[in-house]
Design goal:
The complex is a heterodimer of chains A (about 110) and B (about 110). Chain A is built from no helices and nine strands. Chain A is an all-beta fold. Chain B starts with a strand and ends with a strand. The chains are: A mainly beta (about 110), B mainly beta (about 110).
């Protein structure tokens, strides 16, 4: 799976949008971009994933650049409960030999402050 | 989303004893389950992948005789840490996926070996 690079930490004011970047310059054509987050002492929580089109769900939006070498996770109105470690993971498509395995990097520690 | 539970949520044991951790998919059939380990201030590290009815596949450096994994049914996988030592103290997290589903994580089990 392709390697990802994320900033170590970011701050965001409550109520503002949090924009978390991720670089995945070696991504291949059949690899998806997944985002998970982990609140302290809990298991990771799925947020969103995409292949090449922008995606939106009730939690967040995912913007993938046209060349697919980077993406941005957007939390439109961050709350204190969004404080967590956010992981950007590139994962092979279903059917790949290593499908299912998630390789976690160090992630971005997002701190939402009042 | 699908629910994955783990039991116990925390356990303290003496050095040399064995500890069993259960991972259950509550509302879907998990054909594949994954076991991760997370040390303080570090990211999740995949230990092994298990498919229902098959032997687990261990990641490089993980001792299969020490970390016994059983995935005998589509809703239950167990991880047994045999002859636990203080260096095995960690946060153990399972995840599960089924046909056509994403990967859902349990809440984790905190193991402390005295």
């Amino acid at each position: 799976d392709a390697k990802t690079t994320q900033p170590t930490s970011m701050d965001c004011a409550e109520g503002r949008a949090a924009n978390l970047p991720c670089n995945h310059s070696t991504i291949s054509g059949n690899e998806y971009v997944y985002w998970y987050r982990q609140i302290h002492s809990q298991g990771p929580q799925y947020i969103i994933h995409g292949l090449k089109n922008n995606e939106t769900n009730e939690m967040a939006s995912l913007i993938i650049t046209e060349d697919r070498k980077s993406s941005t996770l957007i939390l439109p109105h961050a709350t204190l409960r969004d404080t967590a470690v956010y992981y950007c993971i590139v994962r092979v498509a279903p059917g790949g030999t290593s499908y299912g395995k998630l390789t976690f990097g160090q992630g971005t520690i997002l701190t939402v402050h009042p | 989303g699908a629910v994955v539970s783990q039991h116990p949520s925390w356990v303290i044991c003496k050095s040399g004893t064995s500890v069993k951790i259960e991972c259950r998919s509550l509302d879907f059939q998990a054909t594949t389950m994954f076991w991760y380990r997370q040390f303080p201030k570090q990211s999740l590290m995949l230990m092994a992948t298990s498919n229902e009815g098959s032997k687990a596949t261990y990641e490089q450096g993980v001792e299969k005789d020490k970390f016994l994994i059983n995935h005998a049914s589509l809703t239950l996988s167990t991880l047994t840490v045999t002859s636990a030592h203080p260096e095995d103290s960690s946060f153990y997290i399972c995840s599960a996926s089924g046909p056509g589903t994403g990967q859902f994580f349990g809440p984790g089990t905190r193991l402390t070996v005295l």
